[in-house]
């Protein structure tokens, strides 16, 4: 705040309405976000003497320089806003979920006349059937690959039956991966049987499939068709393995629940979750939480529920907790709204349900003691490394670090990369790519100036900018910041003649770094990641443009066919390996056009002389005699 904050006056102005409050420190950082049924009563409590406040709250109050608030229409709206703000700002004194795990789903588009099956990252409120969440991306991949072998369905986006017969079948048909309903090769009824089998498999009903495969395998063996028998045996093994691994839920069911318990040790906590589906435990996972010393278990559980279930694509019908949490009824209403059906938040007191909670708690305690050393090592290589860099530069409060790099080959297709590290860990969702628009030729300084000028027009600015280079790159960044009216520390990551990280360039001084320190290792990781990201992007553009330049010379290949070829084949080598039939199967192609492409790409090989050609040997002898 630029003006003096009068605490007593601001407390008097607080409304007696629900809302969210944000506590700021003297550096204008948000250090705590909370919600209240009546802002006037809740916020005043922080400043009314020590009372029964926890050590964490007392420390936080000491660091509050000013506060602000946002009024909402209801406590439920305040809860939803609080969750979003905590995710956005990750305040120091909020108990934070440190794991950033995402859980995929399998979607079956049963609303379509010829449904498709594919992986998605979130569940939408539509007419499709969703199965999940899967706790493993590899489990989804294995399941989809197996389904494609057992009951092949289309994967294209053609609108069927409207588009039946309008275009040639795609490459998947020729590879045996699709029954080509787009050509009428499979009726809607036959296709529907495959869809029913897929739905049964994803719902966990694999007994009939296993029996059918066993029967077919035995018949093939009796007919001495051993290759087919081996293929069916391998399929049978795959079905059994996937059925064991998959952690699935049919979202139409009413018997889904999560069991949540935690264990605490100082400033670290482990939350264990059991995923119960149809009365069976089909999976479990654990999560690390950051907390202040002395944080109550109920507070950790409350923060976990709010943070985890605001981001996961699946909300269970029942949530069993270790103990009562604050605002339990409001959280229950919020979860019910997210799910679209009633959600019950319960604390079991006896019987099998209580034993499940106790089992989750024991697992959390085991994991906490087992992972303590791992947690400490991770702390040292991430936040500990950031602290070392802060000490070297004389800075504090660094959380978000952004690093930039430029990549080009003699100025061709210059690109810029931005990588982001938060608390010493890469935050890949925030990475950005830049195609240089205003600079011609290999001018890294001008290219970097363009990248930074475009980047700094957006919000969520970094706490420090790390430049891949020394004095020149740092001064470019500082000039752009001055022109933008921003004050952000800029540091150069200097390399030696062997292209190894040597030190940091800050305030026109090169600062040496201990090569064995965690801070040095973090700088190296940031530098390597920025370089890798830029090179990968540049190579992709270069490969794409190389293919385009060749395709544009082929007679009969216009922009539409050019795009179709680039979508189908990743590079020129893959395209050259394709047969005429495979090219003709691509949307927009016919046999004559495919033959032109094939002939053009292989013209050099066709014109190349045979090593044993007499005329070639004769010319070679004449050349030798001339020499």
Secondary-structure blueprint of this entry?
Layout: H1 7-13, E1 19-24, E2 30-36, H2 39-45, H3 55-62, E3 66-71, H4 75-89, E4 96-97, E5 105-108, E6 117-120, E7 129-131, H5 137-150, H6 171-174, H7 188-202, H8 207-222, H9 226-245, E8 256-265, E9 268-277, E10 280-290, H10 297-309, E11 318-321, H11 328-339, E12 344-346, H12 351-370, H13 372-381, H14 383-393, E13 400-409, E14 412-422, E15 425-426, E16 432-435, H15 444-455, E17 464-467, H16 471-484, E18 490-495, E19 501-506, E20 509-512, H17 518-551, H18 559-568, H19 572-577, H20 580-584, H21 591-601, H22 603-607, H23 614-626
Helix pairs in contact: 4-11, 5-9, 8-9, 13-14, 14-17, 15-16
Description:
- The chain has 627 residues and is of the alpha+beta class.
- α5 packs antiparallel against α9 (226-245) and α15 (444-455) runs parallel beside α16.
- The protein is built from 23 helices and 20 strands.
- The model is unreliable at 246-254 and 604-627 (pLDDT under 50).
- A hairpin with a 2-residue loop joins β19 (501-506) and β20 (509-512).
- The chain folds into 4 domains: 7-94, 3-Layer(aba) Sandwich (GIY-YIG endonuclease), CATH 3.40.1440.10; 105-204, no CATH class; 256-376, Nucleotidyltransferase, domain 5 (2-Layer Sandwich), CATH 3.30.420; 384-542, UvrC, RNAse H endonuclease domain (Nucleotidyltransferase, domain 5).
């Amino acid at each position: 705040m630029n003006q003096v904050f009068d605490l007593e006056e601001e407390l008097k102005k607080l409304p007696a309405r629900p809302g969210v409050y944000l506590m700021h420190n003297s550096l204008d950082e948000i250090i705590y976000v909370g919600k209240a049924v009546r802002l006037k009563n809740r916020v005043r409590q922080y400043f009314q003497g020590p009372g029964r406040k926890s050590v964490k709250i007392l420390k936080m109050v000491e660091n509050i320089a000013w506060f602000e608030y946002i009024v909402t229409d209801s406590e439920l709206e305040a809860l939803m806003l609080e969750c979003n703000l905590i995710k956005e700002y990750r305040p120091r004194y909020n108990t934070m979920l440190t794991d950033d795990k995402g859980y995929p789903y399998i979607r079956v588009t049963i609303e379509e006349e010829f449904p498709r099956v594919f992986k998605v990252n979130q569940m939408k409120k539509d007419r499709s059937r969703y199965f999940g969440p899967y706790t493993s991306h590899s489990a989804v991949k294995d399941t989809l690959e197996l389904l494609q072998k057992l009951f092949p369905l289309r994967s294209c986006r053609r609108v069927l039956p409207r588009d039946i017969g309008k275009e040639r079948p795609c490459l998947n048909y020729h590879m045996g991966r699709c029954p080509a309903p787009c050509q009428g090769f499979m009726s809607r009824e036959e296709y529907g049987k495959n869809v029913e089998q897929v739905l049964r498999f994803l719902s966990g009903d694999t007994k009939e499939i296993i029996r059918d495969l066993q029967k077919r395998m035995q018949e093939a063996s009796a007919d001495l068709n051993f290759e087919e028998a081996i293929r069916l045996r391998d399929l049978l093994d795959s079905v059994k393995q996937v059925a064991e691994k998959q952690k699935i839920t049919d979202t139409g069911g009413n018997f889904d629940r999560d069991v949540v318990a935690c264990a605490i040790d100082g400033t670290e906590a482990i939350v264990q979750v059991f995923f119960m589906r149809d009365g069976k435990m089909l999976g479990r996972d654990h999560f690390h939480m950051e907390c202040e010393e002395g944080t109550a278990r109920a507070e950790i559980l409350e923060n976990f529920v709010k943070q985890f279930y605001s981001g996961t694509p699946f909300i269970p019908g029942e949530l069993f907790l270790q103990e009562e949490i604050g605002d339990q009824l409001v959280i229950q209403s919020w979860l019910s709204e997210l799910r679209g059906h009633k959600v019950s938040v319960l604390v079991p007191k006896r019987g099998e349900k209580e034993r499940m909670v106790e089992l989750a708690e024991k697992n959390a305690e085991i994991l906490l003691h087992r992972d303590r050393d791992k947690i400490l090592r991770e702390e040292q290589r991430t936040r500990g490394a950031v602290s070392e860099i802060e000490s070297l530069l004389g800075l504090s409060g660094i959380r978000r670090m952004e690093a930039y790099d430029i990549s080009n080959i003699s100025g061709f297709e210059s690109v810029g990369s931005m990588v982001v590290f938060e608390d010493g860990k890469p935050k890949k969702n925030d990475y950005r790519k830049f195609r240089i628009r205003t600079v011609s030729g290999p001018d890294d300084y001008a290219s970097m100036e363009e990248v930074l000028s475009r980047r700094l027009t957006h919000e969520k600015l970094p706490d420090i900018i790390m430049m891949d280079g020394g004095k020149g790159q740092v001064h470019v960044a500082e000039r752009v910041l001055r022109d933008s009216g921003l004050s952000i520390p800029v540091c150069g990551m200097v390399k030696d003649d062997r292209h190894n990280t040597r030190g940091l360039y800050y305030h026109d001084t090169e600062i040496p770094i201990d090569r064995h320190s965690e801070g040095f290792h973090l700088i190296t990781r940031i530098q390597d990641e920025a370089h890798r990201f830029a090179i990968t992007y540049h190579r992709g553009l270069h490969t794409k443009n190389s293919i385009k330049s060749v395709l544009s010379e082929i007679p009969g290949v216009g922009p539409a066919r050019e795009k179709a070829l680039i979508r189908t084949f990743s590079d020129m080598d893959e395209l050259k390996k394709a047969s005429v039939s495979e090219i003709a199967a691509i949307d927009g192609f016919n046999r004559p056009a495919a033959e032109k492409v094939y002939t053009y790409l292989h013209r050099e090989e066709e014109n190349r002389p045979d090593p044993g050609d007499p005329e070639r040997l004769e010319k070679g002898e004449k050349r030798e005699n001339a020499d």
